[in-house]
Amino acid sequence: MSAPLIDKYRKMATFDWRKLKAAVEGEEHVRLKAEVVAKMKSEPIFHRDYRVLSREEHREVVHQRWKKIVEWGLFKDPYSDLENFHALTETLEAYDQGTSARLFLHGNVFGAAVKSMGTERHKELVEKIENNEVCISIRDSAHSHSATHVVVYAQLHVDGKNEGLHGFVIQVRCPRSFQTLPGITIGDMGSKPGCWQGVENGWMEFKNHRAPLSALLNKGCDITPDGKYVTSFKSASEKQSVSLGTLSVGRLGIIAKGMMACTFASTIAIRYSVARRQFGPEKGVENEVPVLEYPLQQYRLFPYLSAAICIRIFQKTFVERFTEYMMRVMMGEKSEELSEFSKEVHALSSGAKPVATWLGVESLGEARKACGGHGFLHMSRLNTLRDDNDPSQTFEGENFMILQQTSNILLGKVRSLGSIDTPMSTMSFLNKNPSKFSSWSSNPVDDVLSAYRYLAYHLLQMTASDANKLKNSGKNAFEVRNEIQVHRAVNLSIAYTEHTMIDWVQKFLEDVEDSTVKNVLQKVLNLFSLFLLERHLATLYITGYASGGKFGEELREKLRLAVAEIKPESMALVDSIAPDDFILHSALGASDGRAYDHIMEEFRKYTNEQPRWVCDLAQFLQKRSQHAKL
Amino acid sequence: MSAPLIDKYRKMATFDWRKLKAAVEGEEHVRLKAEVVAKMKSEPIFHRDYRVLSREEHREVVHQRWKKIVEWGLFKDPYSDLENFHALTETLEAYDQGTSARLFLHGNVFGAAVKSMGTERHKELVEKIENNEVCISIRDSAHSHSATHVVVYAQLHVDGKNEGLHGFVIQVRCPRSFQTLPGITIGDMGSKPGCWQGVENGWMEFKNHRAPLSALLNKGCDITPDGKYVTSFKSASEKQSVSLGTLSVGRLGIIAKGMMACTFASTIAIRYSVARRQFGPEKGVENEVPVLEYPLQQYRLFPYLSAAICIRIFQKTFVERFTEYMMRVMMGEKSEELSEFSKEVHALSSGAKPVATWLGVESLGEARKACGGHGFLHMSRLNTLRDDNDPSQTFEGENFMILQQTSNILLGKVRSLGSIDTPMSTMSFLNKNPSKFSSWSSNPVDDVLSAYRYLAYHLLQMTASDANKLKNSGKNAFEVRNEIQVHRAVNLSIAYTEHTMIDWVQKFLEDVEDSTVKNVLQKVLNLFSLFLLERHLATLYITGYASGGKFGEELREKLRLAVAEIKPESMALVDSIAPDDFILHSALGASDGRAYDHIMEEFRKYTNEQPRWVCDLAQFLQKRSQHAKL
Predict the structure, then answer these.
(1) Do residues A118 and A250 share a domain?
(2) Is residue B544 included in any domain, yes or no?
(3) How many domains would you assign to chain B?
(4) Which residues in B lie closer than 8 A to residue A63 (C-beta atoms)?
(5) Candidates A396, A479, A513, A534; catalytic one
(6) By three-state DSSP, how is residue A590 classified?
(7) Does the first or last residue of chain B, that is N or C, have fewer Cβ atoms within 10 Å of its Cβ?
(8) What range defines the domain where residue B159 resides?
(9) For residue A458, which of A419, A425, A421, A499 has the smallest C-alpha distance?
(10) Residue that finishes a domain, picked among B547, B577, B607
(11) Looking at the domain assignment, is residue A321 inside a domain?
(12) Percentage of the residues of chain A whose pLDDT score is greater than 90
């Protein structure tokens, strides 16, 4: 039975959370996820408590869970059954990113690498990978205990000539005995925080190891029987335009990690903020109000609730566009437009991955603090989640590093301003010299988008102009690129990305049919867009979008108002995004709103413990006491 | 032997790091810390590796270390031997906050509570506490396994009348058998992240427990033999003016935690940034440059290096002022001026604790990301440190919560603007209506302080004016206080605090004699002050300090310049703040600059592990393979 207080908050909403969930996620997705959850609940291996596992225990349980999922046969090629793939991915990612990494990195990412870069001669291996008869890994994240094969990127030297980076697939262990092959040493990287303790990241050393020629992943290149290197790629850039796409697969998945982090943070902290009561207009415990009533608490938490929903919508749209792009690549298309598409996908994924993961990690930190001391307990899951999500900021390239991909592509467009035309139209707004702020419209999102257009346009001009100056002063390209990052290229990439995110969510809303759902989603987007823009307020002043204190004060006022408008909707919004309690696994965030009951239930498991060192302590105190009396 | 590269960076400095260390910390402090470190190195119980301990192992080792320190007799009353106390505190805090908490919370904080609120009848107990014959704890952080006595704050009801919150000291266990006394249940709170896993925070339940009257800590109040409540405090506010001081003891210690977090973050990340080389102006591994050369990397890390030094100087000054105040309290002074002093100490500690701990946690996050994937390994210590420091943000009241103490006190001064006179003079600048920005001076710190004065003054006026409006619209005091926090009272408290921090460090610099040291410390303060102010840029525009983009752009330019000026000094500055390698305990941050050697040395400990579940995996793969062939 739910706590009366949480139900009171649920009743404040103007909409039905199930309808909103269906509109945002799609009915089929919601249904399929529920099926996966039910399956997991029925298997004891997926049950867990709040105990911290050792490295050994952790990895064993992840192995057992991985085995169970493989046995179920749920995991299939994403392109053959996209809906099922997404339902499984999302559920596992929310359940435990470690288990999910083991499954998807093996089967999907590394398998896909062999499939996409390999040829007929790798067909048998691909089948074995897909059927889980071998365990494939990749050098940088070599699965130290379980890998039988690895994908390695290495410089290919033929006849003394370096032909550049190539992919290889190399068998490293016997899949029966699990002994490493001659010349190969594999080790683990030791302890890691959070769920990553359960993932056996390792290192690998090759010393005079001889692999057969078939190890070369030879799509588009090969070594002839007489030892000559041949390639069908006309240029390095043509080769790159294929691999750019591959990179975005991972980034799209990581954007979803950011979304999931915001989902957990806001679910746990907002539900707990209703159970937790502190102070009130009058003295006495009975007058204490739920901390969610405090405007500051709302200001700290609601933006991440809005982020959870908006990043989901953006990411889903992006996946659709990306799938369209991948289909064309797989069909073998080689057009100028597709190469432009590839570049745009790359620019956007390189910007959205940092924006989403920073927000995700930030949300978990804020949620922990907003929950006070109890947020710090392991059973809140907020700490573990922070550890789980922390490396999302350095996965596939440190965030600031990959932001450069976005700004580089945008800077490359400077000369075609006025006629930029990209397949997803995310850069078209740069064609028009945007106007300064004049007045607020009736729609905050339109206002925010106008401000972003100005911001991105001027940051692009300023960054390009700085780059020119540096170049003219004699700096080389490497120096120029490094010296335009701070306050310039970094902000440019972020502004471009956030503009696209907000724009796409706005477009999604246009097609929502149920007016109560549309209405509340508009409130969510208002908050999300004002929250993001407010962080650029100083730069808006610097670029001259507005002057005078009034603009900034009004922007903040609108932001405070947008926060306040979420309050009555907040609990139902949380219900619309929250994973099942079994997946959520947080004593503070359970859907029944009975946080303190769950906390005390857990606490009572540790009643009157007497660890062995207490004897030692008692003796020590007694010795001190005797000594004092002498 | 150090890596040649780190030595090259060391030689760039314009000063001798030992001289700077002595100037900032004091020669005696440096010497005493080295003594403590040497003592710890000589004891095997203080040696550690990079293994993650279980809850049980962790607590046992903390107990053993605590015992060793007690046996050494190093731990004494702070007021009888301040220098030794600080050297021990700082070394233990850097070594492991868990061990340090166990020692200081027992002996210092809880012992001090009994001493300060108790009377003659508690003398024997105080002696036992000081001699470590009993283990004292406090209800909120009850040491679940080891506490024999606890300090409890509870409502005192006498003859049906509630006389308010009072302190009690209650025996909860027999110090011989460690069995709980009748009516008392004690339990643990389960797992916690980082070093706090080693601290046995617990919960306690009293059911019909009868404690003797002597349990009441009866300084200034008592219950007469005929059961009447008497108090010598004339008013609640008089009583409070005593306890306000006690609260700041803890906060001062927590400010130092923020400083220590910045110290670790910048030491580890900056040293690693020299060992780690990536890309370069030309292709080829030999042309790769240390990542510290990247302006963005410098921009991300150097501000926290400057924070480590400036917070230390500020905190040290604050401790001196606070000690002066405490001496007067202990002498029994009861003047209007002392009560004003108490309030000012409270306002400043309530502001500085959030500012310092936020910076500390932020620095560890940034450092981890700036170290890339390897920063994520347990052996970097950055993750553990983040877990260790995370709760510093909610200790003694969640940061936003206690910031209200600062703004409340400042708001109380609004009516006396023009004649504010406090013992530490931290609020005097509010007396003068500050002028807007006109031009930059030759000293960035003066410019920053001017801007802060304007900011704090106007935020105070705006917050007070908002409060009035809300009051006039019929809101009660509780609602008013809550509704003026966002963008107003919060920023006010921070601006006041940061102004004081910068101001005090500037004053400290005036007395530094060695000109090379003074020169580099000025660079450090320039960076610290510009870094802090830049975060208020939007609010500076809103309050009307400046208009037009030029001011903001110039402020950012000065900030970038201040960052660049630190680069040649950075490695020597790190040496001046870095704890001994034994205390630092980071494979990435060792003083020899050989991060990769240390990492590989640790990695090799995990070579060719074959956990038992690998057999299970081999069988599983074989089964899949046989099944596929059928």
Answers:
(1) no
(2) yes
(3) 2
(4) 613, 616-617
(5) A396
(6) coil
(7) C
(8) 43-219
(9) A499
(10) B577
(11) yes
(12) 75
- pLDDT tier at B139, thresholds 50, 70, 90: low
CA dihedral B98, B103, B108, B114 (to 10 degrees): 100
In terms of domains, do A162 and A211 share one?
Answer: yes
Nearest beta carbon to residue B618 from set A67, A176, A486? A176
Same-domain pairing of A395 and A544: yes
Tell whether the model's pLDDT for residue B79 goes beyond 80.
Answer: no
First CA to last CA distance, chain A: 62
CA distance A328 to chain B (A): 32
Cα A571–chain centre separation: 24
- Domain match, B268 and B399 both: yes
Q: Which amino acid is at A284?
A: G
**A residues 135-194 near B, CB within 8 Å?**
135, 144-146, 148, 175-178, 180, 185-193
Q: Which amino acid is it at B126?
A: V
Nearest residue to B201 (alpha-carbon basis) of B53, B391, B7:
B391
Separation in Å, CA of B337 to nearest CA in chain A = 31
The two structure tokens encoding residue B159: 């003859």
The one-letter amino acid code at B229 reads Y
Say yes or no: A170 and A269 in one domain: no
ipTM for the assembly: 0.95
| CB–CB contact A482 B394 (8 Å) | no
pLDDT for residue B9: 97
Q: Side chain identity at A120, as an amino acid letter?
A: E
Catalytic choice (B344, B396, B498, B569): B396
Query: Per the structure block, which two tokens stand in for A106?
Result: 């093996």
Q: Measured between alpha carbons, how far is B531 from B542 in angstroms, rounded to an integer?
A: 19
Residue at A58 is within a domain = yes
Whether B243 has a pLDDT exceeding 60, the answer reads: no
CB pairs under 8 A between A and B: 317
Taking only the tens place, the pLDDT of each residue in A495-535 is 999 999 999 999 999 999 999 999 999 999 999 999 999 99
Phi, psi for residue B98 in degrees, rounded to 5? -70, -50
Q: Are residues B176 and B279 in the same domain?
A: no
Write the single-letter amino acid at B502.
I
A612 contact residues in B (CB cutoff 8 A): 60
Non-local (6+) Cβ contacts of A18 within 8 A are A576
B398/A372 touch (CB, cutoff 8 Å), yes or no = yes
If one counts every other C-beta atom within 10 angstroms of the C-beta of residue A121, the result is: 14
State whether the Cα torsion A136-A142-A147-A151 is positive or negative: positive
Q: What is the pLDDT of residues B489-516, one digit of tens each?
A: 999 999 999 999 999 999 999 999 999 9
A100 vs A152: CA distance, rounded Å? 22
Task: Give me the residue from A59, A131, A604 closest to B611, CB to CB.
Answer: A59
Cβ contacts (< 8 Å) between A193 and chain B: which residues?
Answer: 376, 378, 383-384, 387
Same domain, B248 and B197: no
Nearest Cα of chain B lies from the Cα of A627 at a distance, in angstroms, of: 10
pTM: 0.96
B396: annotated active-site residue: yes
In chain A, which residues have pLDDT < 70?
Answer: 75-79, 107-108, 138-142, 234-243, 245-246, 630
Phi, psi of B413 (to 5 degrees): -90, -10
What are the Cα distances from residue A82, in Å, to A23, A29, A129, A316, B194? 18, 10, 19, 12, 40
Q: In sequence order, what DSSP letters do the residues of A200-265 get, joined into one string?
A: -BEEEEESS----GGGB--TTEEE-TTS-EEE--SSHHHHHHHHHHHHHHHHHHHHHHHHHHHHHH
Helices (H) and strands (E) in chain A, counts: 22, 9
Q: Do B617 and A133 lie within an 8 Å CB cutoff?
A: no
Whether residue A260 sits in one domain with residue A205: no
Please indicate, yes or no, if residue B553 is contained in any of the structural domains: yes
Listed by number, the residues of chain B in 412-471 with a beta carbon closer than 8 Å to a beta carbon of chain A are none
Chain centre to alpha carbon of residue A254:
3
CATH of the domain at A312: 1.20.140.10
* 3-state DSSP assignment of residue B109: helix
| A267 interfaces chain B, CB cutoff of 8 Å | no
Task: Tell me the average pLDDT of chain B.
Answer: 93
